[in-house]
Write a structure and sequence with these properties.
Shape: elongated
Helix content: over 70%
Keywords: Membrane, Transmembrane, Transmembrane helix
Order of helices and strands: HHHHH
Radius of gyration: 19 Å
Number of strands: 0
Oligomer: single chain
Distance between the termini: 28 Å
Number of domains: 1
Length: 150
C-alpha cells in the first residue's frame, strides 16, 4: 500500500466514523430503558420470597430484547465495555449499581427497611438514565475525533 492509498483509506475511515457518529443517537426512551432496567434490578429486592429472582429474569429478558431492537433498528449494538473513554463510564455505572444493590440489601435485611430497595432503585434509574446519555455523547465524540478513544 503506497502513501496515497493509505491516505485515501484513512479519509474513507474518517468519513465512515462521521456517518456512524450521526446515526448513533438514541431516544430519551432508550436511555430511560437502561435506567428502568437497572433500577428495577435493585427495586425488585423489596419483593418477598423468590420474586426478586423473577424480576432479575424479566430484566435479563428485557435486556436481550433491547439489544435485538437496537440491532434491528440501527443495524448494530454498541457494547458498553468497548475500549475507550466510554469503558470508564460503564465501569463507573457498574460500581454505582453494585453499591446500590449492596445498600438496598443491607438496609432491608439488617435494618428492616423494606422500602429501601424501591427508593434506591428509583434513584439508580435516574442516575443510569443520565449516565446513558453521557455515555452516548462521549461515544459520538470518540467517533468524530479519532485518537480520543483513550
Amino acid at each position: 500500500m503506497d502513501e496515497q492509498e493509505a491516505a485515501r483509506t484513512l479519509d474513507m475511515m474518517r468519513a465512515t466514523r462521521g456517518v456512524l457518529a450521526t446515526r448513533t443517537r438514541w431516544s430519551l426512551a432508550r436511555h430511560a430503558a437502561v435506567g428502568v432496567l437497572l433500577g428495577s434490578l435493585i427495586a425488585g429486592y423489596a419483593l418477598p420470597g423468590s420474586w426478586p429472582v423473577v424480576v432479575v429474569m424479566v430484566c435479563l429478558a428485557a435486556t436481550v430484547m433491547t439489544v435485538a431492537r437496537d440491532r434491528r433498528r440501527d443495524g448494530f449494538f454498541v457494547n458498553g465495555y468497548r475500549i475507550g473513554r466510554t469503558r470508564r463510564i460503564t465501569f463507573t455505572l457498574v460500581a454505582i449499581a453494585f453499591a446500590a444493590l449492596v445498600s438496598a440489601i443491607l438496609l432491608k435485611e439488617r435494618y428492616g427497611l423494606d422500602w429501601a430497595p424501591v427508593a434506591i432503585g428509583i434513584v439508580l434509574a435516574v442516575v443510569a438514565t443520565i449516565v446513558s446519555i453521557v455515555w452516548e455523547r462521549v461515544y459520538r465524540q470518540e467517533l468524530k475525533e479519532p485518537g480520543r478513544e483513550r
